[in-house]
Amino acid sequence: MTSYFSRLLGGREGAIGLALLAALLLMVLPLSLDLFRLGLVGKYITYAFVAVSLVLLWGNGGILSLGQGVFFGLGGYCMAMFLKLEASDPVSTAIQSTPGIPDFMDWNQLTALPWFWEPFKSLSFTIVAILLVPTLFAFVIGFAMFKRRVGGVYFAIITQAVALILSILIVGQQGYTGGVNGITDLKTLHGWDIRTDSAKYILYYVSALLLLGCILLSRGILGSKFGMLLLAMRDKEERVRFSGYDVSDFKIFIFCVSAMISAIGGAMFTLQVGFMSPSFVGIVPSIEMVIFAAVGGRMSLIGAVYGTLLVNFGKTMFSETYPELWLFLMGGLFIAVVMFFPNGLAGIYQKYAKRSGLLRRMMQPATNGSCARISSESKKMGART
Amino acid sequence: MFEYSMAEIGNIVVMQGFSGLSLFSVLLLMALGLAIIFGQMGVINMAHGEFMALGAYTTVLFSRFAVSHELVSHYFVFAIAAAFVVAFVVGYLIEYGMIRHLYKRPLDTLLATWGLSLVMQQCFRSGFGAKEVSATLPEWLLGSFKPTPDIDIPINGVFVMVLALVVTVGVGLFMFRSRWGLRMRATVQNRVMADAVGINTRKVDRVTFALGCGIAGVAGAAFTTIASTGPTTGSLYIVDSFMVVVFGGAASLLGTITSAFGIAQAQSILQFFMTSSMGKVATLMVIVGILMLRPEGLFASKLRK
Amino acid sequence: MSNTDFVLAVEDLTVSFDGFKAVDALTMYVDKNELRVVIGPNGAGKTTLLDLICGKTRSTSGSIKFNNQELTKLSEHEIVRSGVGRKFQTPSIYENLTVYQNLEVSFPQGRTVFGSLFFRRSAEVARRVRSVAEEIFLDEQLEMEAALLSHGQKQWLEIGMLLMQEPELLMLDEPVAGMSAKERDQTADLLKRICRNRSVIVIEHDMEFVERIAHKVTVLHQGRILAEGTMEKVQADDRVIEVYLGH
Q1: C95 touches chain A (CB under 8 A)
Q2: HEC states along chain B?
Q3: Measured between CB atoms, does B302 come within 8 Å of chain C?
Q4: Residue-wise pLDDT tens digits, A282-327
Q5: C169-173 vs C199-203, strand pairing mode
Q6: Does A349 map to a domain?
Q7: Chain B residues with CB inside 8 Å of C57's CB?
């Protein structure tokens, strides 16, 4: 059991890093920021779920998905559907031509609730759906792609196409999905008003705790033999296959896990912000989420969170003062990170920390296959710098 | 769908067919450029749509110049050439500055070129404004001709189609009949040997990339005859173009042509019978579905593994 | 389609790439505890033969039976799990992992997704890793990143990874390429040791090395068997001298 535990914590420096992050999210920020800004951080935290999922999928698995917005959106829409149904009880919607159904359905001349909305009246179903629907979706896509050995760039393009398909579908089917405006005006979760200040605080903490939980889960995965195999597959897929492993099974699994984590983020987003729209599902948001992970460090779970916070803070700051500049900056950021800082902030941090001898064991990601080392925290063979 | 008579359906098919052909032409040109870059070099250029927009904006500039100097009937052909040159040069510089450092990392090239597309979009926005702009077309491109009273074929559509075919044939001749084309194919097939026999493979890479971008520029010029251009116009066609290339099997010219034709036609016809968005969704879903069954695309040759 | 006592029975195997027959109606049998060396000029189909057996390439026709199990229908990892191990021409190891990790990953347990997630580092695994490391002369380098090994050591590591799998049939593609003379000696001893309970197929070009280890030699030429037998017999064969060994 101790080896499991130490795996989750990520060894000594992993535990410190996680503790610092937890302190930042759970203590420092809530104490120093006003509710409005804290709400922004809460939003960024939900994006960080996707960034963390990309560390698993892309950094470690070598699988670039340009469609994580799909899973974020699916989780978010499931939650939104539940909340919308709750907000559309016959009393509040009495003025509609058809009371008891969401307002946008009424505007689109629907007279009854579509069949696939019905189950979302139940909270337990909704929670299960948030976890399972995106996972199943990922399973289908992953199965079709990975079993046929489609990977790399082809896979990335196809995930992009899937994101496009879903976003167009959602926008086009206004009556069923709320169209381009999304599902808005969400009020209560099982009777609990999510718009009050105290609710915002609670939701912030829940999101932060869930994020930390997902990081622990990811650490558990990466520290196991599975994690080692994932890295091996990223760099030498053939060899892993010829060591007796069905590579596609592993890829499908990590794709599903990343989908589920992203979906949780989407659901928390809906709760915190009070709506969900297709603008989080398509190509542009999906690629933006990749840059969060890239800036923070695609190999570092904690780095990904910092990256998300940083880029989003920058975006908010710049979009207000210099909106034109922001697109330039973001484009430049993409290019700079890819060309000069492939391992993001985490990579820079480790380079300097190593120099100053602060940390004993490093985790250096493989950029082009040359000298790099993986520290397996559960290895008990003694350390060597 | 069933309220139309047979004759009407025939006319619809022909007209949709032709509107499909305009789409086909633009898609073909975009896909050609992409196929050269991706199929030959394995580089994903997410900014390819922006190179198309670059060609379109160049054409618009020429158009504005022509309008103020009363050269409207003559400028267009020069504009097309200029679109090619501008896109070619920019592509050349981009390859030199950015792409060549990333050849071993295709996924990273994807991200870096996405960043490039953002930068280019913002340049367009700053330079031309966020609203769409169009080129003033010369009179010989306007109007339509009617082979029968019920069928209306726009002239600009035919022009674009002819342009696309001319460029395709030109590219084919270049790739398979010229010395540069030979160098390009040699570099793709066996870089080490190509280097060894004295081909400057670095330069070939640069020219290949620039050529792909130049063709996108021509697509942009062609595009101005069909619609107006805005900063985000490039991103409208990028996914479709990738689909065309991947679907056709990235290494085959014939595959690209057939794939562009099939996809454009399918989309046009489907869009007529369903709503515009559902038509697009349906087309994309069919493509993705087929790719899941046959990932190497329709025309990939069986390689020795 | 006959039942055989041979560990490996390749019968009438053909693979054609766009008309070119890399392997042409090849029939070959390998015994238990045999060390078979396959030699032949470049392009004779040696590596292709190994590719076919381990599933990397699909045959056009013919059959490959391993312990009477038809391999042509199985996928690569299924073939490995049934007891076939393949070493590639260029050392194919996990550069970013340590020697210990390279060997551990090859332990034939925890091969499914959930198996690997919950795989325990038991004492048994550690013991096995150490004993294999000793066999492949890398017991002092267990903590070293594989990328830092010498070329010869990388070859040994790959052999070690295969040994961890406890295969019944081991296929090695040019195991001593790029090795020093001393390393070759060590490798020859290693190979003679490991074929005690298994069958081994080796592709090699170094004739001196082949002489030292081979029980039996098969000469391939243009996808077909040119000659087969002991080293002396093959070396004396006129056709072999003509095509490969030279005068």
Answers
A1: yes
A2: CCCCCHHHHHHHHHHHHHHHHHHHHHHHHHHHHHHHHHHHHCCCCCCHHHHHHHHHHHHHHHHHHHHHCCCCCCHHHHHHHHHHHHHHHHHHHHHHHCHHHCCCCHHHHHHHHHHHHHHHHHHHHHHHCCCCECCCCCHHHCCEECCCCCCCEEHHHHHHHHHHHHHHHHHHHHHHHCHHHHHHHHHHHCHHHHHHCCCCHHHHHHHHHHHHHHHHHHHHHHHCCCCCECCCHHHHHHHHHHHHHHHHCCCCHHHHHHHHHHHHHHHHHHHHHCCHHHHHHHHHHHHHHHHHHCCCCCCCCCCCC
A3: yes
A4: 888 999 999 999 999 899 999 999 999 999 998 888 888 887 788 8
A5: parallel
A6: yes
A7: 305
Mean pLDDT estimate for chain A:
85
Is B239 in CB contact (< 8 Å) with chain A?
yes
- A193 in a domain, yes or no? yes
Residue of chain C whose Cα is closest to the Cα of A375: C97
Residues C76 and C174 in one domain: yes
Q: Given this model, what pLDDT does residue B48 score? A: 93
What backbone torsions phi and psi does residue A129 show, to the nearest 5 degrees?
A: -65, -40
Mean pLDDT within A179-193: 87
Please give the model's pTM, rounded to 2 decimal places: 0.87
Chains touching B (at least 3 CB pairs under 8 A) are A, C
Tell me how many domains chain C contains.
Answer: 2
Q: Which of C94, C98, C101 sits opposite A235 (nearest CB)?
A: C94
Last residue of a domain, one of C151, C185, C200: C151
Q: What is the mean pLDDT of residues C212-224?
A: 88
Q: Are A372 and A299 in contact (CB under 8 A)?
A: no
Chain C residues in contact with B302 by the CB 8 A cut-off are 17-18
CB under 8 Å, gap of 24 or more: what pairs does A147-151 form?
Answer: A147/A248, A148/B292, A148/B293, A148/B295, A149/A248, A149/B295, A150/B291, A150/B292, A150/B295, A151/A63, A151/A237, A151/A251
- What are B114-170's pLDDT values in tens digits? 999 999 999 998 888 888 888 787 777 777 777 766 666 777 778 888 888 888 888
- Domain boundary at C101, C124, C151, which? C151
Q: What separation in angstroms does the CA of C21 have from each of A298, C29, C50?
A: 45, 21, 15
Highest mean pLDDT of the ranges A71-75, A156-160, A329-333, C172-176: A71-75
Whether residues C15 and C75 share a domain: the answer is: yes
